[in-house]
Amino acid sequence: MIALTDILIRLGLAALLGSIVGLERQRHDWAAGLRTHMLVCVGSALAMIVSMDGFGDVINKPGVGLDPSRVAAQVISGIGFLGAGTILFMKSEIVKGLTTAAGLWTVAAIGLAVGGGLYIPAAATTLIVFIILAAIKPIERKIFDRNKYTAINLEAGKSQVDIKTVQEILGKHLIGIKEVRITSPDNDTDRIRIAIQKTSSKDPESLAVLQDLQKLNGVNVVEFVTQ
């Protein structure tokens, strides 16, 4: 039997480690924040404790066939419903929230480790996860330019927007056009998706670009799309 004080220590440590990851996600206003990560970590730790210690009275009885490890194993597979809730399918075929979903899955694993008494691996994993979430993103942005605008969506009256004029406006802001796609959801509207790229290392003034495009005749909606 696991001592009561040891159980309380494990649950408390799980809450602490879950909060470290949760604080980083909360800082970015994601759906799964501080409380969600703490609950996942504590719940996972408790599941592991139950799996290890909750069936001692019956597991050795004749004719009883139990696999207590299945309780803990179901945590990893069951965390999927929470992960799915953090993933957002945005307009323009962009998916957001995958990192948070992966973080929740990892926090569940951390909770299992704490519940199993593997304190050092759990703490080390928490530190690694925090570094990945907090420190790698700026590096990723700098190297891969992932946080930059990748497209502009325009919604305008039918055949009222001259792409050449749009190109001139974007060129003024040091933005080049890679691809233009026009769809017509109805007889009165054109939806124009313009894949863009910077022509300078200087970041464009997004508000100024939007304002210039909004001034075009017939334009009803204009928005940047990020990836």
From TrEMBL:
Its record classes its membrane topology as: Multi-pass membrane protein
Q: Where in the cell is it found?
A: Cell membrane
Q: What keywords were assigned to this record?
A: Cell membrane, Membrane, Transmembrane, Transmembrane helix
GO cellular component annotations, sorted alphabetically?
Answer: plasma membrane
Q: InterPro entries given for it?
A: MgtC/SapB/SrpB/YhiD_fam (IPR003416), MgtC_SapB_SrpB_YhiD_N (IPR049177)
Q: Where are the transmembrane segments?
A: 30-51, 71-90, 97-114
The family note in this entry says:
Belongs to the MgtC/SapB family.
UniProt domain MgtC/SapB/SrpB/YhiD N-terminal: residue ranges: 11-141
One Pfam match: MgtC
Under which name does UniProt file this protein?
MgtC/SapB family protein
Q: Which organism is it from?
A: Mucilaginibacter conchicola
Question: What domain of life?
Answer: Bacteria
